[in-house]
Protein 1
Amino acid sequence: MNWLPALYPALLSTGLAGRALVLRHRLLTLAPLPTPRPGGNPAVVPSALSAAASASAAVATPPDLGAARDPARPGGLTTARALGGPGDLSRPPSFGRPDGVIRLGGLDDSDALGDRDALGERDGFSERDGFGERDGFGDRGGSDVQNGPDGIGETDGPGGVGGAGGAESLSGLGGDVGYEFVVGERVMLSGPVRRAVVGHARENGLGILDLVPADLPAERALDLARTLNPPEYRTDPLAVGRGAGFAIVAAGELLDRAGHGRGALDPGAFGAATARLRQCTTAADLVVVPSTSPRGPLGRGRRAWLAGLGVPVGWTIAAAVLGYLSVLAALALDPLWGLIAVATYCAVPYLVFGGTALTPHDLHSAVLFRLVREPYGWWRTLTDPPCAWERERVDRRDAARAYYRAEIGRGVERFLGPRRESCPWCGSESLVVHVRAGDMLQGKPGRFTLERCRDCGHVFQNPRLDDEGLAFYYRDCYDGLGGETMERLFAAQGGILRARARFAAEHVGTPRAWLDVGTGQGHFCRVAASVFRGTAFDGLDTGEGVEEAVRRGWLRRAHRVPFRDLPDGLTGEYDVISMNHYLEHAADPLAELDAAVKALPAGGHLLIEQPDPEWRLGRLLGRFWLPWLQPQHLHVPTLDNLVRALSARGMRVRAVQRREAHQRYDATAAVFVALNTFGPDPFRPWAPGPPTLLARLRRALAQAALPPLLVAAALADRLVLPLIPGPGNAYRVLARKDEG
C-alpha cells in the first residue's frame, strides 16, 4: 500500500495537465491576422494589404447586426480586400481621441511613436516601471507611455489619428466605413493593423471584433482562456462578451444603439463595454493581432477588468488558492510525486500557450516563478487601487445602503399582509405549512411561509407580500446592483430556452408577432428568434431590463407596464403569448390568465412554463430548492390546476411537457443558495451592519467550499437526480384559443 500516498499527486498532475490542454484547445481556435512578407506580399492569403488599391471602390457599410454570421468562418482573416496599402502590421500607433473611441479617418502610416521596442519599431513605451527598473519577475512593470497633450499616445494632427489632417479617409477610399475603435488605457495600434482589422470585420460581416495582442501577459491570457469558449462566443446568441481588455473594433451604429459612453475606458469600464457590446450583435469574433500589449506590474487592473466582465473575482481567487493548496498538499504527501505535481503546475503556461497564436511576453518568468508569482498576483489583484469605474460602483452601493438602512429600520414585517384562511385557487380551508425560508437570492431580512392546499395541491405565499414589499425585495435583484449576476445566470440557460422554443415550434407554425410576458431582458426572445425566423418579438415587463432588450436588438418593442394594463389596442395583435416562469410571480395568476385569453386572437396560442411543485426533490431540499424562490414566488400551481383553469377559459390544451421540461440545476442551485445563506456578501447594502471579521471569514469559507461542492452538485444533477421517478422540476403547457 506504499503507492497510496503517490496516488493523489499523480491524479492531481493528470488533472492539471488535462485542464491546461482544454484551455489550449480553446486558444487554438483564435487565429492571427496575416502579416505581410517583405515587399508587401501577404504570408497567409493571396489578396492582402497590397491588393487593396484595386478594390478601393468596394467601400462596405457596417454589417447587418441582426443577422447571424456563418459560424463556420474561422477567427483569422480569410481575405483582405480593401484594407489599405502595404505596411508593417506590427507597428504601434498613436491615438487622437482622449475618450477611448477612435473614429476611422485621417489615418497615416507615418506615426511618430516614441522609443523603439525590442523589434526595432517605435512603440511609445519607456519599458520601465515606476521605479526605473525591472520588476521581480523578469517582465517590465509599470509601462510609462509617452503621451502627448491628448493623453493617449502622442500629439496628433488636427484632423485624425496620427495623421496630418482629417481630409484623408481610410486608405483613400473616401467616406467613413462605419467602424470605430474602443480601446483600453495605454493601448497603441498601428495604422496598418487598424486597417487590417476593419477589413476583417467588414469581410466577415462582424458587428464587433475583439483584438487580442499576441504578447498578452500570461496572467491576462490565462484569464482569457478560462473565461472564453471561442466557438460558443461566436455562435451563442446569449453569449456575454469576453476578450483581452486591449481593443475592440465595432460598428458605429452598434455603439450608438448600445448607448456606449465616450469617456475614458479604464479596466473596469472596458470590461463592462466588452461584455455588453457582444450582446448587441449576433456577429462577433476575436482575432490575434501583432501589437504590443501595455506593460505593467502583475495584477494591475485585473480585479476591475474581471468585475467589468461580470466574472466573480472572489470565487476566481478562491479557486486559484484551492488549486495552489492542492499542489502543496501533494508535495507534503509524497515528496517525489509531489515534485512532479509542482512541475506540472508550474508548466501550465507552457502547456496552454504552446502552439497557439499567443506568446505572452512574460511566458518564461510565469513558468519559472509561478509558485511565487501566483500568491503575489492574488495579493496585487485584491489590493490594486480602485479605478474610476470601481469607485462609481462603490458610490452606487453607498447610496443603496442609505436607502436600505432607512427601509429596514422601519421594519420589514410591515410588508406582509394578513394571513389568508383559504386557498386562493379552490377556496378550501385545509391548509398546511409547506416551506419556511428567508430571502433565497439576496439575503435581505425577513422570513416567509409557503402553505399548501391539502385539497388541490396549490402552493402559495401566506401571508403575502404587498406591492411595497415586492418592490423592496425585487430592487437590485434583476437589474441595478444585481443585474450583472442575473445576466450570467440567464446567459447560461440557452439550452433550456431553445428547448422551450422548439416545443412551441411543433404546434404554432410561424407566428407573425409574439409577446413574451415577464420577459426580463428578453433572453427567451433572443433564442426563439433563431427558431422562429421572421417572427417579430415584443416583450412586456415592469423592470428596466425590457428597455435594455430593445437597445440590444433582442426585442422589436417594449411594454413596460403590468400585463393587465396592456392597452386594448393591442388585443388580437399577437399570435402567441408566452408566460415563462411568470405566473408564479403574479399576485393573482387567474386574473393573468383572463388577460391572456382576452389579448389573444381566435386561433392564438398561450405558452406557459412553470416550476412543478410536485417534484419530489422540492420537499427534500426545502428552503434550498431554488424554484420556491422566496419571497418572489407567490403562487406555484400544479399542472392539473393550470390545465383546468385554461379549459374553463375556453383554451384547448394542445401539448404538455413534464419530465421533458426538467432542468438539471437542482443540486447546483441548492449549493449556491446554501453557501450564500451561510456566508452572504458582508458588503451587501442591506447587511445589518459594517463587515465584521466573522462575516468575512464565513464568506471566505463559502467561496473556498464552492468549487468542490459545485463539481459534486453538477455531477449529481447530470447523473443521479434524473434517476428519480415521477415528474421533473418544471412543466410546459401550450394551449390554443378556439373561440373569438
Protein 2
Amino acid sequence: MTSYRTNLKVQQANSFYNYTVGLDVTDVDLVKTATNLLKSKIARTVCFSDLKCVYLDVDGCVQLEWLRPQGRQWDSHWEVKFSDNLPRHTAADLLFCLELSFLEQRIESPEARQMPSHLRAALPPLVLERDGLTLPIHPWLKLYSDGILLISFQLDAAWSGLDEGDFIQEIVNLFQQYFDRVWVQEHLQRIDAEQELLSDLGSELSIGGQRVASRKTQRLIKKIRRDGRAVLEESLRKCGRAFDISGESCVLHQIAGSEGQSDWEATIDLCRSIYVRAVASLVAVSGRTGGRAPQAQLWQGRPSISLMRFVDQPDSKEKLLEEFGPSISRVLGRHGELEDPPALPPDLRLFGDYCFHGDRALLLWTWLRMPDQPDNVWEEDNTQGRLLENQARAEHFEYHNLRIARACATASSPQSDEDLVEAYRVLAGAEAVIHHSGQAGEITDALDYLLAAAGTKGLIASGKEQARWHLDERRYRAEKKRGRVDRWLTGVFGLVGVAGFADLVVQPLLTDMYPDHGEAWTGLYAFSLSFAVVGLVAVLISIINILRR
C-alpha cells in the first residue's frame, strides 16, 4: 500500500485572483475607454494589443508610445527600445504587458486568431490588513473589444513553511477571509460610490419586488443619496495613508464608512465589486454618446495559483504525484480537512517541467525543483516569465469560458435582436473556435477539458436551442405583423381595383343600358356590382385554396 504525504508545507506561492466579467455590450471603443481611464486617474498607462500605448507624462498630459519589439516568434526573447522621456513606472507596466503579449502569441497563431483586440492597464493597488498582517494586492485590467473584461488581483507571498490547511484557508480561499481594514485609491471610491448611488437606488423604491413611486419615496431617495455622499466626503477628506508598494509610495484611503466598523463585508469580493463597477462606468461603446453606462451581465471568479516552492519539493512528476497527490487534490477541492480526497484530474501539462491541474473552482500550477535551483525562486531569471506564462494560459481559458457563458445567458433572455443574433453566432461557432484556439494540441485539449469541467461546454447545445427558439419567435411575430399589414394593403388596393373596374367597365355599360338614370345612381350601382363580382371571385379563390390543402 502506497504511503502518501498528508501535509504540504508551502514556502513560496504566487496567486492571480481572476474575476472575468461579461458586460451587456459587445462593441467597445478601446481608444475612448483608454482615454477615460487616464482622465479618471485610475490608470497611468494603457497598452493595446497591437503594441501601441498611451500614458500620462510627468505633466499629466497624454502621450503615445509605439512599441516595436525586435525578434522572431519562436525566439526566446524580444528586444524593445523605449523613448528616453518614458516615465519609470510606465516602462515597468509596459514590460509586464510586453511579456504577456509575447506569451499570448505563443498560444494563438496570427492566421487563426480567435481573440479580439484588447487593452491592458495596471490599476491602483489595494492593501488588506488583519491582525498585523498587511497584504499588498496588484490589480491588472484586461478589456476586450467585445465587452469582456478581466480584473486580476496578484498576490505574491513567502513563508518558512505554511501548513497545507492554513494555505488553503488563507490564500486559496482568500475571498472568504474578513479583514480589519481595506485601503483603496480615492478616485476609485468616488467613481464606485456615484455608480452605486445611481444604479442601486435608481428613481424608485421597491417592496417585495413591487415598485413604489411617490413624492415621499422621491424625497427618501434624495435623502439617502445626500447622506451617502456626506459619508463619502467625510471619509475621503481625511488624510490617506502612504504605503510603499513595489518601491513606489501610494496614498490609499480606507473604504468610505468603514472606519471603526468591525462587522462589515471587508473581503476581496468587495474590492472586486468596487473595481468592476468603476471600470465598467468608464467603458465607451462604439457609436454611443452619453446614456447609461455598461453594466455587468454576469461574472465568474477563480484563482490561478502557482506553487513555486514547498518543503521536500521533488524534481520529477512521478515523485510529485506519488508523495503530494492527496495534498494537491485538497488544494484543488479548496478544503484542507478532506481525509480521503478524490483522485486528481488529468495533468494538463504534457511535458515534465511542471504539473497543471484545473477544475471549476481553481487552476493550479505545481512546479518542480531541480537540485541546483536556489531556495528563493525569485533568484532565477525566468521566474517572472514562468508565472506570466501560467497567467496567459489562465486568461485564455477565462475569456473563452465567459464568452460562451455570456452568450448562453443572452440566449435565454435577449434584450434586443442584435444581442440575440450575436449570441447565436458565438454559440454556433463555439466548437470551431475551441478547435482553433491554440497552436499546440496541449493548449487546445486543456481548454476543451477545462470548459467541460467548468460545465460551460455542456451549455452550448441548450444555449443554441434557446437562441433558435427566440429567433423563430421573433420571425413568427414579424411574419404575423407583416401578414396584418399585407391584409390591410390587400383591402385598400382591392377597393381601388373595384373603383377602377366600376369606372372603366361597369359604369359605361350601365349608362348605355339605362340612359335615363342619373349619373350618381349609375356610379353607385356600378361600384356595388363591381364589388359583388370581385368579392365573389375572391370567395371562390379562397374556397379552392382551402380544398387543395
Protein 3
Amino acid sequence: MNYHEAGATTRFLETGSDQDLEETIQRYLYGDKLTEARDEKEKLEKEAYSNISDLEDEITDLEEQRSTKEQQLEKIQASYSKATTAAGNLSSVTRKLVQVPSSTNLEDETEEEPQWTESWRLWEDRYTRIQIGINTLDTTQPSYTIEGLQTAFEKKISELTTQREILGKIERLEQEIATLQTLRNKFDTSPWDTLSSSSTFAAAILSSRGIRLSDLQLLADELGKLEEPINADTVAEWVTTVEAQFENRRAKLEARKVALDDDTEHQANREELHAEIQTLTDQFLSISESIAYCPACYANQTKKSLREREQPTDFFQEKNEIPNALRSHLASVDDALTILGKDSWEDISHTIDARYGSICGLADLRELLSFAIGASRSETLPTTTEDSVSLLGERLQEADGIRLETADLATHIQKIREADERKRTEGMERVPRYDPGDEYVGDVIQDVVEHLDKIQVADSLLTDHIPSIHWDDEIDIISDRRILEQTLNDIEESSALVNSVTSLREQITDYEQEIEKVTADKQDWEDGIKRLQQAFSQTGGKKAFNEHIEDHMSAITTLFQAFQRPYEFDEVLLEDDTVRVSRRGSADDSEPVEKMSSGQRAALGLAIFMTNNLAHPTAPPVMLLDEPVAHLDDINTVSFFNLLISAATELDRQILFATANEDIANLLKEKIGDSDDFKSIDLDKAH
C-alpha cells in the first residue's frame, strides 16, 4: 500500500529537496494515512520553530564560551607582557636564575602551566624562606652580595647556637634550683633540722627507695632483741649480718613453737584416756553388787568409796599452750626479714657505700635506727625521689668549702641553691633576649631554635641553589621576592593560566566551527519551513486538497462496487479523517466500516490498495498480494481476477500473487489461460 511514501511530507524540511512538491503531496494522499497531511504541516512547523529556538540558545551559549576563552587568551598575552616588564625590574642575579618570559616563546607554550611560571613560583618560595632568614639578622640593609649574605647567616647561626647552649644550661639550673628548694623545705623542719646532715641525707636515700620510718622502727625493735652485737663496716655487710641473725633467731623461735605444739598434743591424749577410764569404772560399778578393790589399780576400795572419791587437784599438769608473745615475736621477725629482703636494699647499699660514701655511711644508718626507736608512729621519712636525691648527692660532692658536720642539711642545700642562682644570672647576662621576669626559659629556647632553623634553611638555599659564579654579585632578595610574588598573584587572580596558549586557540577554533555548524542547521530549518509553506500553497490549499481526496474516493467506490456484489453500498466516504460507507436504499447517515462483514471489509481494502497503486503517476509498477481473496466469495473473486489481469496486460504492472488454496490457484490459471505473460510456480512448503 505504498508505505514508503508515508514520510514524504517530512522530507520537505530536508535541505536540497528537488521533488515536485505538488506531485509528492498527491502521492502521499493515497497512502495509508490519507488525511494526516492536513495536520502534518502544522506539526512540522511547530517542531521546526522549536528546533530553531533550541539552536539559537545553543549558538548563544557557544558564543559565550568562545568569548570566555578569547578573554583568557587575552589575559595570558597580557600576563606575558606584564611578566616581561617585571623581569626587567629584577636584580641581575635573579634574572639569571629564573626563566624570563617573552613574546617569542608565547606560541611555544603547550603545557597547562608555562615553564617560566614554574620557575618563578619555585624561586618566589626560595626567596620567601631566605627573606625569613634575613629578618632574623635584625638589619635594615636592603641588599647584599651572595657571599656577604652567607657570611652574615653563618655568624648568626654561631651566635644562636651559643645562645641555645647557654639557655639550655639556664633551664637545667632553674629545674635544679626548684628541686633543691623543694628538698630544703622538707629538711628545714623538725626533726630533720636536728639530725646530722649525713644522717638526713641517708634518710633521703632510704625514702627514695621505698623504705618507711615504720620499717626502721620494726628493724630497731628486733635488733634490740638480738643476743649478739652486729659487727659490720658497710651497709651491705650490715644487711647480710642482720639478716643472718634474724634467720637464726627465727629458727630458735620456731623450734620452741614446735616443742610446745608436741606437749600440748600429749596432754590432750592423757585427758582423753582418763575420761575413757572414768567411763569404764562407772560402768563396772553399775553392774557389780559388792566391790573390795579398785578395778583400775587393784587397791582395796569399797563401792561407796570409789563413787565418792575426788580427783586430786594436781592430777593433770597445767596445759602447755603456745604463748601469744611467742606468736607475736615470730611475726615481727618475719616482717623484719621481709623488709631486709626487699630488692631496694641492694641499691641502698651501693648508693651509701660506693656512690655517696663521702657523704654518709653505716654510722648514719645506725643513727637513723636509734632515732626511729624514739620517734612517734605518726612521723615519716621526708618524701623524696631517686632523681632529686641523685641531684642533691652530686651537688654535695661537687660543692667546695662545704663541711657537712658544720650545719644541718637544709642549710647546705641553701648554699648550693644560692650558687646555682649566681650561675643562672651570669648566663642570663649573655643572652639579652631572655627576661626571666616576663618569659619562661623553655619558650625562649623554642624561639631561639625556631630562628636557628629558619636561618639554617636560608643559608642552605643560598649554598645549594645559587652557583658560586654569582656570589660576588649583589642581590635584593626582598625586592625580587615582592616582584615575583606580585606577578604570580596577578596571574592567579585573573585565572589567565587555566589552559595553555595552544589549547586555548584550539578550543576557540572548535567553538567557531561548532557555531558555524549550528547556524547552518538553524538556516536549514528556516528554509524547510518556507518550502513546506510553498508546497501547500502550490497544491491549491485546503479546498483543492479536499477536491483531490473526493476524486480518488470516487475511484475507490467504483472498485469497491466491482468487488462487492450484490451492490449493497452506494459510496465510500472520508468524513472527519475516518473512512465510512453509505448503504444503498438507506435513509440513514453513513456508517463506519466496523459494521461491514469481513468479506466487505476485505473488498474495501483491496479497492483502496488498487486505487493507491493505479492512481499514482509515479507509483511503483509492482503489486505484492498474499491471499488477497481469502474473504471474497467466488463471484467477487472472479471480478478481482479480471481487474488484476487488466492491470498486468494493459497498465504494465508486475503482480506477484501468492496463495495456498489450490482452488483459487486453478481458478486464476483458468482465467488467465495460455499466455507467456503469466507464470505459475508451485513452492514446496519447506520453503
